[in-house]
């Protein structure tokens, strides 16, 4: 693990004319009408599916009370939502930023610890009474056995880029979040993530 430079929280996104205005309204409707709603975001057991499973578990909603419609990714899921083929998608706010800004879609919540700077009006799940956060992250890693001197050079240079004004401007322009961890911090974070997602995969029935 060389360095982490990104973290993007999952959002709960619906059509602009959907009847729900916050996450509690949506979850109450799901509880009252099990197996009637279709969710998407990416493939089954993808990070966006797991984010949904974790949210349901924390909110006391049965995991299998909605149908997950697998797609090839967030872009395909957004098309499905715009076409009325699914009711809700969970993906990063950044991936749906254009449709959110144009008013085609609305976000009921973001699964981050704090509100996003670019979307300050979207409240977090925690603000809405659900103690859950989830998302995706990106970083640089190299094969086991890579010489220490090579890893040290890479870590120094990657962190230099990640902390630069140019990188901050690029990420802000494209709506991506910045989260920087050095190699040791990134390794510890990855171990924690492995343990946390193992539990969610078990909840979803993807592993035993």
Layout of helices and strands:
Blueprint (H helix, E strand, L loop, with lengths): L2 E13 L7 H10 L5 E3 L6 H13 L7 E2 L5 H9 L5 E5 L4 H6 L2 E6 L24 E6 L7 H15 L2 H9 L9 H21 L5
Parallel strand pairs: 2-3, 2-4
Antiparallel strand pairs: 1-4, 1-5, 1-6
Descriptive labels:
208 residues; alpha/beta; D-Maltodextrin-Binding Protein, domain 2; six-stranded mixed sheet; 7 helices; 6 strands
Order of helices and strands: EHEHEHEHEEHHH
Derived from helix and strand composition plus strand pairing, the structural class reads alpha/beta
* Helix segment tally: 7
CATH architecture of the domain at 10-133: 3-Layer(aba) Sandwich
Outline the biggest β-sheet.
Answer: 6 strands, mixed
What is the CATH class name of the domain at 10-133?
Alpha Beta
Please characterize this protein's 3D structure.
- Strand 2 (38-40), helix 2 (47-59) and strand 3 (67-68) form a beta-alpha-beta unit.
- The mean pLDDT is 96.
- The radius of gyration is 18 Å and the shape is globular.
- It contains 7 helices and 6 strands, in the order βαβαβαβαββααα.
- It has a domain at 10-133: Periplasmic binding protein-like II (D-Maltodextrin-Binding Protein, domain 2, 3-Layer(aba) Sandwich).
- Strands 1, 2, 3, 4, 5 and 6 form a 6-stranded mixed β-sheet that branches.
- By secondary structure, the protein is of the alpha/beta class.
Summary of the model, kept short:
The protein has a domain of 124 residues: 3-Layer(aba) Sandwich (D-Maltodextrin-Binding Protein, domain 2).
